[in-house]
Amino acid sequence: MRVAVVGAGPAGIYTADALLKSEVAAGPGVSIDLFERMPAPFGLIRYGVAPDHPRIKGIVTALHQVLDKPQVRLFGNIDYPTDISLDDLRAFYDAVVFSTGATADRELPIPGIDLQGSYGAADFVSWYDGHPDVPRTWPLNAERVAVLGVGNVALDVARILAKSAEELLATEIPPNVYDGLKANKAVEIHVFGRRGPAQAKFSPMELRELDHSPNIEVVVDPEDIDYDAGSIETRRGNKQADIVAKTLENWAIRDVGKRPHKLFLHFFESPTEFLGEDGHVVGLRTERTALDGTGNVKGTGEFRDWDVSAVYRAVGYLSEKLSKLPWDTETGTVPNEGGRVIDEAGSHVQSTYVTGWIRRGPVGLIGHTKGDANETVANLLDDHAHGRLHTPATPDPEAVDAFLAERRVHFTTWAGWYKLDAAEKALGEPQSRERVKIVDREDMLRESGAGIRS
């Protein structure tokens, strides 16, 4: 059985792993080709995880073991549908699984959103993670900055803004990011949540890590520590939520210290407007909210203006619509049942599947995508067992290489990743760093030995 997986991040690689562990792999056999837009694999782990979180990046070790399998091939620097379309994939494979994730910022429809100084968190993350397709510089002129959202991405953004460049120099950040952060003028970072401490989506470890930096003083207002019946029920039923609330409580009762950068965590403040002057952000207006008994909140009619000159919106990611596939505009996902793509009539689109964030939306941690992949693969294998997959016209693996060569597409391979990996580690060695990330796409292609196979 030949399977194409579009997207070589964790969701896509977990899909390959589930296929390799199946009875089909043990019997007739399975071969898997992963198609990745970037020249390097690993998706969110390489371009979505903050550089000062090497613990999370350790997941790469497990993903490596999957990509090392001889039944798996990687085609990097391949854009769907520009370089290869759904019809093309169907000609070569019994089934196609899309695992393209979510990389754009979800919209926040409030006045002033288009002012200069209003930024999407996803764009900032791409910059500090050395994404090849974003600008090499970032404006870091604001002394007081607002971050909207109470999830881990908001914490990442706030922490990177609050840390010194020297603290981050030991990580894999490229020189342009180090230079940008060295010029960062931020000394006050304000993180805003619409609801209360019990509803925050931080993971306990991510939250507590804020307090580990010698440069960051975390400040919580005691008036923001409030719970209703719904909040208490949440804490009782969710250990992580309870730990987060206890951590915030402890920070609220301590004296404010003298670390140079202040990071304020505000709750019960709902953003209503970005304030502007001459086209630039000069403030943020919020409405104070109050718990309604269920854990949700309602507006109080009390407004406050905050003196900030940059606002980062960390209110969620959004997936890009995929060509030739049905689309749910409200959820930003491909309609599906258990990973089987469903058309407007409610019928399964033959041999076509989704997994990860493109399937269920950008929620949960990296590990949650493994369960998604297992369910999607189980349904794919069930379709295979009952003869519901289509038969590809040209299943020969070499036909894919010939197709890309005819299209004059430069692509990277798994062997090429090892070359790029070695080049990045060599850049880091003189500074006793594990690696220095290569940013420019052409440089990545060159170091990977990318080319057109004849």
Give a quick precis of the structure.
The protein has 454 residues and is α/β, with parallel strands linked by helices. The protein is built from 18 helices and 18 strands.
Tell me what you see in this structure.
The protein is an alpha/beta fold and 454 residues long. The chain folds into 2 domains: 2-103 and 320-448, NAD(P)-binding Rossmann-like Domain (Rossmann fold); 104-317, FAD/NAD(P)-binding domain, CATH 3.50.50. It has helices at 10-20, 23-26, 44-47, 54-57, 59-67, 86-92, 121-128, 152-162, 165-168, 175-182, 204-209, 229-237, 239-253, 357-360, 368-385, 397-406, 414-428, 441-448, and strands at residues 2-6, 31-36, 72-76, 95-98, 104-105, 118-120, 144-148, 188-192, 216-220, 261-266, 269-277, 280-291, 297-306, 310-313, 317-318, 336-337, 340-342, 348-354. The strands form 4 sheets. A 7-stranded mixed β-sheet has the order 3-2-1-4-18-17-16, sandwiched between helices. It has a 6-stranded parallel β-sheet with strand order 6-14-7-8-10-9. Helix 12 (229-237) crosses helix 13 (239-253). The longest helix has 18 residues, at 368-385. It is globular and about 65 Å long. The two termini are 25 Å apart.
